[in-house]
């Protein structure tokens, strides 16, 4: 088994317990503070002491040189496994930060993201007395203000191997779930609108497709007072600044996880 530690990359013989009531090999690795790169029959594990403030490629190249300064190219290349484990580790930390570390239920829509802590949220950061309710107060007291905007320079190319793409938190954070978003775009009709201004390209190129790009930009909804993004309200742009993308952002704000708070 290949063990990647802060001291280098090591090859050691490891035998898992094979008793009838033994735990699966991956759980045994976790119990000994090893993070397996695979779960059925792990052949590579990473210790939990791996940490650094540099890029993953530079860090692993340093580990290979520490293992063999003369022949670092002969050290097993586990860079791909390191990137996959790093994603899983960040996902586990995010779930722990949002209170799912000791819960058996899975997070629902937008529960792995936090809304603006300064905006009034009755029951969360606003304490109501027993004889006080939202119906007795003026409507402006707990009213929220939102703004919508987009970044049309955040382009993303099509993945080389889309079948290898694994979504760990689809729709659980700030982005709208891909299946719900695709269903909305399929049902929404594109209205061709012609601008009277020749320089206003946002309207003229609203439905212009770019075949080499998976997304032509990103848009979202944020708190107007403090600039914090709203959970489950950000989407990718497939074409230009279409009304369909703004509609789903607005609907997720009204009917999303903040509707009952």
Summarize this structure briefly:
With 261 residues, the protein is an alpha+beta fold. The protein has helices spanning 25-31, 56-67, 79-97, 178-187, 201-204, 243-255, and strands spanning 2-5, 8-11, 34-36, 44-47, 146-151, 156-157, 213-215, 217-223, 235-237.
Q: Can you describe what's shown?
A:
- This is CxC2-like cysteine cluster KDZ transposase-associated domain-containing protein.
- Pfam families: CxC2 (PF18803).
- It comes from Suillus discolor.
- InterPro entries: CxC2_KDZ-assoc.
- This protein has 261 residues and is of the alpha+beta class.
- 25% of the residues lie in helices and 14% in strands.
- The chain has two domains: 2-97, no CATH class; 146-255, no CATH class.
- It has six helices and nine strands; from the N terminus they run ββαββααββααβββα.
- Strands 2-1-4-3 form a four-stranded mixed sheet.
- Strand 1 (2-5) and strand 2 (8-11) form a beta hairpin.
- The longest helix is centred in the middle third of the chain and has 19 residues, at 79-97.
- The N and C termini lie far apart (50 Å).
Secondary-structure topology with pairs:
Elements: E1 2-5, E2 8-11, H1 25-31, E3 34-36, E4 44-47, H2 56-67, H3 79-97, E5 146-151, E6 156-157, H4 178-187, H5 201-204, E7 213-215, E8 217-223, E9 235-237, H6 243-255
Parallel strand pairs: 1-4
Antiparallel strand pairs: 1-2, 3-4, 5-8, 6-7, 8-9
